[in-house]
Specification:
Blueprint lengths: L1 E8 L7 E8 L5 E6 L9 H6 L11 E2 L1 H13 L6 E4 L2 H11 L12 E2 L1 H4 L2 H12 L8 H24 L4 E7 L5 E7 L4
Parallel strand pairs: 1-5, 3-4, 5-6
Antiparallel strand pairs: 1-2, 2-3, 7-8
Length: about 190
């Protein structure tokens, strides 16, 4: 199972965790936490303008580092026996590990699913943008960005599956005839 992960942090230099969001591949499990006590002055201008306005809306999500460590550890340990984190930056996993204060639980794969190659895929990008276009789905909110990653990945998977099974509208394929020549043809699938 994939767990889509996103984090927000102070800046690229100090990388102090501000918030973390995770959502499961099936969308049934999610977690959102915010770190208490992060000074606004530590944050980059971008973070102050685009991340800070979304913080503090859910008081139950805010905790100090020991509480977050416990909460994250319990949530990750409750997941199925094999989980792979899916994110667009290694910084996200680095910040999760730091917040845990311990190695990842044994059910979490040590190799992340890298979403970076999908970001430029039109299908992925369009689905992420559709998610964030909905009311109350802001960009630069860790949980909503994790949901956006999930939407993009699901759309990309659907397109990839359609291509693999030949269900695209037009597909070129090659086959060998009995004389060893290659015959090129275009297959147009009819929709029923």
């Amino acid at each position: 199972m994939l767990i889509f992960l996103d984090t927000e942090y102070t800046d690229l230099e100090s990388r102090r965790l501000i918030s973390l969001g995770m959502v499961s591949e099936d969308g049934r499990r999610m977690l959102y936490v915010e770190c208490a006590g992060v000074p606004r002055a530590m944050c980059s201008r971008f973070v102050v303008e685009h991340v800070w306005p979304h913080l503090g809306r859910d008081r139950t999500a805010i905790g100090d580092p020991p509480a977050l460590q416990h909460h994250l550890g319990d949530w990750l340990a409750s997941l199925p026996r094999h989980v792979q984190l899916a994110c667009d930056s290694s910084i996200d996993v680095e910040l999760l590990r730091s917040a845990l204060g311990t190695p990842l639980p044994p059910n979490i794969d040590t190799v992340r699913y890298d979403l970076r190659p999908l970001i430029d895929a039109a299908t992925y990008n369009q689905a992420v943008c559709r998610y964030h276009a909905a009311p109350n789905h802001p960009w630069h909110h860790a949980l909503h960005d994790a949901h956006g990653h999930r939407w993009g990945w699901l759309a990309w998977q659907d397109e990839h599956r359609r291509r693999k099974t030949g269900s695209t509208a037009n597909r070129d394929f090659s086959t060998n005839n009995d004389k060893g020549r290659t015959i090129n043809a275009t297959f147009k699938e009819t929709q029923r």
